[in-house]
Amino acid sequence: MALRFKLLGSLKIEKENGDASEVMKWNKGCALLAYLILVGQAQRREFLADLLWDAPSTSRSLQNLRKLLSRMRKWVPELEVTRTQVAYPQETAVAIDYLTLSNILNAGGIAEMDSALSFYEGDLLTDFYLDDAPRFNEWLLIEREKLRQRVMATYRQICFAYSEQGT
């Protein structure tokens, strides 16, 4: 079943019918999906385990990741899991607000960029934090700041263009 992702502002992962996805019960599952969507390519299991758990050993982190993936497969069958990698194919989602915003900002003119900013409902994964995943939290802070800078640059570009047009 395809999912709809709202990554800007407060996190929401919904089924096509608008009901909250069961994956929302697990912060680690939400973090994993958000990370895979934002990086847009398969990731090594060891890396993901280390990103999401601050366990004393990689084997313990990998065990935690295995358990999470086995629970998530029921609710997110689109996950592509191999012995070495995990991926979430973006094209299987109904909508991903972050990617919609990003694609329009990359390709659009001033009017398109202006309307695209309506997708920006707040920081990336506002108030989302994992107590035992400092590497994930650090990555998320960096991504939030990159997006903020990009949005501010777009606002400046739009203001400049409109002032040049006299509107």
Number of domains in the coordinates? 2
According to DSSP, the number of beta strands is 6
**Mind telling me the C-alpha Rg?**
18 Å
Q: Give the proportion of residues in helices.
A: 40-55%
SSE order:
EEHEHHEEEHHH
Task: State the separation between the terminal residues, measured CA to CA.
Answer: 45 Å
Return the structural class: mainly alpha
- Spans of at least 5 consecutive residues whose pLDDT stays below 50 are none
Mean pLDDT: 91
Q: What would you call the shape? A: elongated
Keywords:
single chain; mainly alpha; 2 domains; three-stranded antiparallel sheet; 10% strand
Overall description:
With 167 residues, the protein is mostly helical. The protein has 2 domains: 3-92; 97-165. It contains 6 helices and 6 strands. The strands form 2 sheets. Strands 2-1-6 form a 3-stranded mixed beta sheet. Helix 2 packs across helix 3 (58-75) and helix 5 crosses helix 6.
